Amino acid sequence: DAVDAAQLVFITVPDDTIPVVAQQIAWRQDHCVVHCSGATEVLALSSASACGAEIGGFHPLQLFADPAVALNHMVGSSVAIEASGRLDTELRRLAKGVGYRVIELPPGVRGIYHAATNYAASFVLSLLGEACDLWRSFGINEENALAALLPLTRGTVEAAVAAGLPGALAGPFSRGDAKVVAIHLQNLSAIGDVHVQLYRNLSMRQLALARRRGNLSDEVLAQLTAAINPNTKTSM
Predict the structure, then answer these.
(1) Global pTM?
(2) 76 torsion bin: left (phi>0), alpha (psi -120 to 50), beta (else)
(3) Residues of the chain with pLDDT under 50
(4) DSSP letter at 7?
(5) For residue 108, is it left (φ>0), alpha (ψ between -120 and 50) or beta?
C-alpha cells in the first residue's frame, strides 16, 4: 500500500534481500526506486527497471550505530548517488535539504567504493584495537589506552582536515627516522609476527605519504624502505 501511494520508494533492507524485496512489488512506470546500500549494485533493482521504473542508489557516508550522534554529523557529510534523469535531480534535492555533499558514482564500482569507506570508518577501530592490544602487553588496560590514544586520533583527523594527508603525516616517516622504525619492528617481533606484518604493511602506506610530502631525500626514503623490509633490495 505504501508503494502504491508513492512515486519515490526507498528499499532499506539488508543487502542480500534487496532484489528479493524488489521482486515482490508491482512497480509502475512513474516509480523511482532507490536502495541505500554502499556495496550492492543498483542492478539489484532490475525487476523494477524491467517494469519501467527508474532505479538508483543513495548511500550516506555516515555511521548510524548511535542515531543521535549521526544526526549531529549529517550536515557536511557526503552521500554517494548513482542515478540519472529526474531521479538524479530528486536525490540531489534531498541531499541538499539534509546538508550532504554529493559524490557521483558510476555503475559497477560500488564494491571498491564501499571497501574504501571501511578504511576511513570501522577499520580505524581495528587499528585502535591493535594499539590497545600492544599496550595491554605491558599492563595498560583498554579503557586507559583509549583515554590516551583517542586524542591522538582526533588530532590526526583535524590535521588532515587542515593540511591534507601528506601534510598531516607525523612520527618517524615525517622525519625520515629509519632507526625508530627498526626499533619498532625489533620490539614487535618479540610479541608476534602478526603484529610485525601489520606494521610493515601500514608503514609502506606511510612511506607513500612521505614521498608525496616531498621533504625527504631519496637517500632517506631508501633508508626507510630498508628499515621496513631489511631483507628486500630496493631501488629509488
Answers:
(1) 0.86
(2) left
(3) 234-236
(4) S
(5) left
Q: Which three cell numbers stand for residue 109?
A: 564500482
pLDDT score recorded for residue 72: 87
pLDDT for 53-93, tens place per residue? 999 999 999 888 788 888 888 899 999 999 999 999 999 99
Strands 78-82 and 54-60: antiparallel
Sheet holding 32-35, edge to edge: 8-11, 32-35, 54-60, 78-82, 101-104
- CA-closest candidate to residue 187, choices 221, 209, 179: 179
Report the chain's C-alpha Rg in angstroms: 23
CB 210 within 8 A of CB 216: yes
* pLDDT for residue 232: 63
Q: Distance of CA 222 to CAs 55, 57, 210, 219, 236, Å?
A: 51, 45, 12, 5, 7
